[in-house]
Structures are given as structure tokens and as C-alpha cells.
């Protein structure tokens, strides 16, 4: 949605109508009977005030006639008393039904909308989540959208209820004094337009705040999460972060205060002027009653109905304003649901069995929104079962390269072939099943140790504890698991778990998870960065056994690891500058040899 000052009114109305229709269709698809029940209840509730007013009029007129006839018989009043009791009971039942149905509707909408957001997010690719603009879109979609949809329904039903009250009361008042209608409409239309502009301004303000609200969440996380608190305390950053947080919140408060002030003065002006006009009309009706043109019942009902009508009309306008405002926020969810993955999954050329041959042909890549390429004309051939190590300084493009191999991104130019097939022509699910990946920023799942390993191939392994234990044994982490209170059944993690692990221990779990996957291609991005020397050595001793039969791409800054590879590619500024075996590259005496000797000197100095 764009700013109202720049969007034509017709376009605004179309957007509002689209959001409203989508919300109604969504609720209908969830539980049509519930929607019908809520609507019928609102209609009944909207007619009750008029029923009570007519009952009061009939009761007063019957009582007045009885008094004039000097009779104490209750019989003429009984029908009106019975009707009044019936309407009152119906009102009580309607209020109870309204609460029950609305709670049900809120619960089901919340469940459905939250599920839809998560389901759609799962279809989007890594590039989306790395884009700050998408983060703003996601933030707006998550920010109480389910509640916005429920409030839209609640406001729509309240507007329907109040509109019926208004129309029914107006019908009564027209019979008594028709001039009341143009008086009310003369105030109501400008007030409705005022409230709409106010709602639009509030929405535009919230839309523009999205990035700033993410900043407040960032400052909050730095001040309250375990991972950040230690360094924040040591550096005494809390006062600075708190100052930034307060500056943003103060800005929000100032802006909100201005909107609240405009709303207050506008509502007050409408209330005062409308009340004075209606009171003047009531005085005119009183004069007509004294002149004998109207009955005392007419006078009594006009007084009560005008007060009810003004309140109902005010509620109609505020409910319409709120419903329209909710459709603006609902459009944020629709904007998110319209986001499409940047990786297209339309392939159908999956081979019967993957061998793991990889070929890159003049692959170039630049991140969205940037012109500087991260990779430039990279060409490689990796044979099935071969191990390729990729080395280079930080920022050379190593992690980007392996993410391209896993098709977490697509090349800007060139192509990547898997077993001779362009990876873009392979079904994405089939390709990903053939890739085991240990990320540099590996995940630490709040789950049992067994589940953390089984997630590598969860559809096969979650119900096979013996196989998970065998994988842990082959990965060399049995000793680690024996130290846990309940072994593989120990719940890991700080948020819900019984035991948290060190960074190196978590990395060992992540490596075991990768080896649990029956994949033709294994990608290890800095797999030993958190391991101590003993754990690293033990992993290397098992490495060839664990990687046997798989095509392996290894990124590491440790040349003791790199030397085990069949081939080594040296990346510099996104280009392959050297390629060969460990021995060949040392003999070449180029970039690789310089980096290798530098690390050897550092190791020698550290042991001296």
C-alpha cells in the first residue's frame, strides 16, 4: 500500500475491497457455520434497541390511556410487558452468544493465519531472507495480522449491528420528526471522512515505521538474550543501546500523541455539535407534544431514541473507520503472501540415481541490489566421489560458491551441472535430498541429541534410534553422548533443554547430522572451526571413511584439513586463481603456497 496522498481514491477503495473480500473468504473457508452464526447474531442484536424503544412507547401509551380512563387494570399493559421481557431475554442471550462465537472465530483465525504465514515462509528461499526489504514485509505480515483480521470481522459486525440500530431508530424518529435525519447526516458524513483520513494517516505512519520497529526489536534482543548479554555487559553498551531504543520509542510516542489529539478533538466536536442539534430537535418535539400533536409516548421514545441514535451513529462511524483501518493492515499480509521464491522450482529432469558429478561453467554471481560480482567466471569439474577443497581469504566468495552448488542461489550468469543436468532443470526437492551441508553458521536445535542427528534425514531416522546411535558412533561422538545425563535422549539447548553444549560440541553434532543424510554430495563449510585439536584429529581420521562414495566440497582455513583433498581450488576476489593438488600448488609457489607457509609459521610460533 502506498501513501494516501499519492494513491487515487478509487485505487484505495479497490485495495480495501480486495482485502475485505479476502478476509471474508478466508473466514468462510475456515468455518462457514461460525461466520453465519456471528452474522445472524449481529443482525438480531442490531434490531433489539428498536424493539425495546417500540415496547417502551407502547407501554407508556397504554399506561397513559389507563390513567386517563382511571382504571387500575393491568390487562392493557400485559402484552407490552411480555414483549419487553422477550426482547430483554433475547438481548442477554445475544450478548452471551456473541462472546462465545467471537472467541471461537478469533482462535480459528489465529491458527489459520499463523500457519499460512509459516507455510508460505517455508516456500521462500535464502535470498529473500537476506533482503532487508523482505524483512520489512515479513515484519508487517507477522505484526498481529491474525488479530487484524479478527478485528476487521468484529468491527464489520459491530458496524452492521450499529447500522441496523441506526436505521431502525431513524425509522421511528422519521415518523415523529423527519427533520432529525438531515441534521444527523449533515454531521455524520464529514465525521466519517475525518475518521477515514485519520485511519489512513495512522496506517501510513505504521507502514513507515517497520524498519525502526525492527531496530527496537534488535536493541531489545541485545539487552535480553543470552548470546549477547555477556559482551554487552563487558563493553558497557547497555546505556548506549538503551538510549537508541528510547530515542525511537520517544519518536513513536510523539507521533502517536499527535494522532490521538486529532482524534480526541474531532470526536469531541462531533459529539458536542450533534448533541446540541439533537437536543434542539428534542425541544421542538416537546413543544409539539404540549400542543397535542404528539403523545407522551412519542415524546419519551424520541428522547431515548435520539440519545441512542447519536451513540449508535458514533459507533457506526468508529466501527467503519476501524474496519477500514484493519483492511489496510490486512493488505500487509497479502503483500507478504504475494512474495514469490526467487529460485524457480519447475524441474523434472531428475536422474534415476545421482552420481555426484559437478561442473561449473563460467559461473558469475552478484547479490540482489548490488553491482559488484561476488564470483566471476568460475569453471570447475568435480568427479563423483572426489573431494575438492576451496581456500582463500575472507570475502573471496567461498561460502557463496557452495551455496550456489546447493542451489540456495542461482547464478547470475553461467550454469551449474549436476550429473550433466543444469541444476535449474532438476526438481528442487530431489536436488536437496542429494546434498548434505554443514553450514558455517550451523543450527543448534532445541531437541534431543538423537533428534539433532536424525534431522539430517528426519523422515527416515526419527523412528530409528539404533541407526542414529550407529551414525553417532561412526561420527566419533559416542564419548560426548555418554557424558550427557540421558545420552541420546538428553534434551539439548539453553531455552528448553537439560544441557547446553559448547560451540565445538554443537559442531560435532552438526557434522554427525550431515553424515546421517544419504546424499551424493557433501558440503562442509568450515567444519572444524569450533573444534579443539583432539576432536579435529579424530574427525580427520574418520573423514575419508565418512565421506567415502560422496562428492565432497570442503571449505577450511586449516591446511592440515585441506591437504587431504584430491584437488584444491584457490579463490581470490571471486575468481579461481590456482587449481591442483596440495603438492602441485606448493611446487607452484603461488598464493596457496604463501598462505600455507604463513600458517605453518604461525603454528610454529604458537608451539615455541
Question: How would you summarize this macromolecular structure in one to three sentences?
Answer:
By secondary structure, the protein is an alpha/beta fold. Helices cover 65% and strands 9% of the residues. It folds into three domains: 12-337, ABC transporter transmembrane region fold (Up-down Bundle); 356-434 and 522-532 and 550-608, P-loop containing nucleotide triphosphate hydrolases (Rossmann fold, 3-Layer(aba) Sandwich), CATH 3.40.50.300; 443-518, 3-Layer(aba) Sandwich (Rossmann fold).
What does this structure look like?
This protein starts with 8 loop residues before the first helix and ends with a helix. The strands form 2 sheets. It has a 6-stranded mixed β-sheet with strand order 6-7-8-3-9-10, with helices on both faces. Strands 2-1-4-5 form a 4-stranded antiparallel β-sheet, covered by helices on one side. Helix 6 packs antiparallel against helix 11 and helix 8 packs across helix 10. The protein has 608 residues and is an alpha/beta fold. The chain is 65% helix and 9% strand. It is elongated, with a radius of gyration of 36 Å. It folds into 3 domains: 326 residues, Up-down Bundle (ABC transporter transmembrane region fold); 149 residues, 3-Layer(aba) Sandwich (Rossmann fold); 76 residues, P-loop containing nucleotide triphosphate hydrolases (Rossmann fold), CATH 3.40.50. The N terminus is likely disordered. It is built from 22 helices and 10 strands.
Amino acid at each position: 500500500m502506498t501513501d494516501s496522498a499519492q494513491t487515487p481514491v478509487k485505487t484505495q477503495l479497490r485495495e480495501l475491497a480486495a482485502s475485505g473480500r479476502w478476509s471474508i473468504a478466508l473466514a468462510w473457508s475456515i468455518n462457514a457455520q461460525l461466520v453465519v452464526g456471528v452474522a445472524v447474531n449481529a443482525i438480531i442484536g442490531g434490531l433489539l434497541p428498536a424493539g425495546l424503544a417500540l415496547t417502551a412507547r407502547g407501554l407508556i401509551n397504554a399506561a397513559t390511556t389507563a390513567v386517563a380512563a382511571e382504571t387500575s387494570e393491568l390487562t392493557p399493559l400485559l402484552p407490552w410487558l411480555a414483549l419487553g421481557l422477550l426482547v430483554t431475554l433475547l438481548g442477554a442471550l445475544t450478548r452471551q452468544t456473541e462472546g462465545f462465537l467471537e472467541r471461537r472465530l478469533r482462535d480459528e483465525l489465529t491458527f489459520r493465519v499463523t500457519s499460512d504465514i509459516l507455510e508460505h515462509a517455508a516456500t521462500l528461499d535464502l535470498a529473500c531472507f537476506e533482503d532487508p526489504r523482505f524483512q520489512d514485509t515479513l515484519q508487517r505480515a507477522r505484526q498481529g495480522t491474525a488479530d487484524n483480521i479478527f478485528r476487521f470481522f468484529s468491527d464489520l459486525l459491530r458496524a452492521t449491528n450499529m447500522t441496523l440500530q441506526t436505521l431502525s431508530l431513524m425509522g421511528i424518529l422519521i415518523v415523529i420528526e423527519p427533520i432529525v435525519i438531515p441534521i444527523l447526516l449533515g454531521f455524520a458524513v464529514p465525521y466519517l471522512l475525518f475518521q477515514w483520513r485519520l485511519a489512513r494517516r495512522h496506517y501510513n505512519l505504521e507502514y513507515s515505521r517497520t524498519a525502526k520497529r525492527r531496530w527496537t526489536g534488535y536493541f531489545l534482543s541485545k539487552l535480553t538474550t543470552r548470546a549477547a548479554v555477556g559482551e554487552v555487559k563487558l563493553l558497557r553498551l547497555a546505556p548506549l543501546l538503551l538510549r537508541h531504543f528510547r530515542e525511537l520509542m520517544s519518536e513513536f510516542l510523539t507521533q502517536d500523541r499527535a494522532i490521538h489529539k486529532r482524534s480526541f478533538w474531532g470526536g469531541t466536536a462531533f459529539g458536542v455539535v450533534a448533541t446540541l442539534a439533537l437536543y434542539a430537535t428534542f425541544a421542538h418535539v416537546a413543544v409539539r407534544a404540549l400542543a397535542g400533536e404528539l403523545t407522551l409516548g412519542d415524546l419519551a421514545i424520541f428522547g431515548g431514541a435520539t440519545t441512542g441514535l447519536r451513540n449508535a451513529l458514533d459507533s457506526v462511524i468508529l466501527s467503519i473507520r476501524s474496519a477500514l483501518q484493519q483492511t489496510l493492515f490486512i493488505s500487509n499480509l497479502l503483500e507478504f503472501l504475494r512474495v514469490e521464491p526467487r529460485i524457480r522450482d519447475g524441474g523434472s529432469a531428475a536422474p534415476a540415481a545421482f552420481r555426484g558429478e559437478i561442473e561449473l561453467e563460467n559461473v558469475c554471481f552478484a547479490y540482489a541490489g548490488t553491482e559488484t560480482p561476488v564470483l566471476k567466471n568460475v569453471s570447475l569439474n568435480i568427479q563423483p566421489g572426489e573431494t575438492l577443497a576451496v581456500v582463500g581469504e575472507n570475502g573471496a566468495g567461498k561460502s557463496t560458491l557452495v551455496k550456489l552448488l546447493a542451489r540456495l542461489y542461482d547464478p547470475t550468469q553461467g550454469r551449474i551441472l549436476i550429473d550433466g543436468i543444469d541444476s535449474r532443470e532438476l526438481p528442487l526437492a530431489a536436488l536437496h535430498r542429494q546434498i548434505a551441508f554443514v553450514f558455517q553458521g550451523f543450527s543448534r536445535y532445541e531437541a534431543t541429541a538423537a533428534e539433532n542427528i536424525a534431522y539430517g534425514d528426519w523422515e527416515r531416522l526419527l523412528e530409528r534410534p539404533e541407526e542414529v546411535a550407529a551414525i553417532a558412533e561412526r561420527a566419533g561422538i559416542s564419548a560426548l553422548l555418554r557424558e550427557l545425563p540421558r545420552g541420546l535422549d538428553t534434551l539439548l539447548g539453553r531455552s528448553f533443554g537439560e544441557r547446553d553444549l559448547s560451540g565445538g560440541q554443537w559442531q560435532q553434532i552438526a557434522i554427525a547430522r550431515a553424515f546421517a543424510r544419504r546424499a551424493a554430495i557433501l558440503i562442509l563449510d568450515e567444519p572444524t572451526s569450533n573444534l579443539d585439536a583432539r576432536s579435529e584429529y579424530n574427525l580427520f581420521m574418520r573423514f575419508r571413511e565418512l565421506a567415502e562414495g560422496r562428492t565432497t566440497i570442503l571449505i577450511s582455513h586449516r591446511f592440515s584439513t585441506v591437504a587431504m583433498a584430491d584437488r584444491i581450488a584457490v579463490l581470490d576476489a571471486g575468481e579461481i586463481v590456482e587449481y591442483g593438488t596440495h603438492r602441485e600448488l606448493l611446487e607452484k609457489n603461488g598464493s596457496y603456497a604463501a598462505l600455507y607457509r604463513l600458517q605453518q609459521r604461525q603454528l610454529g610460533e604458537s608451539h615455541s
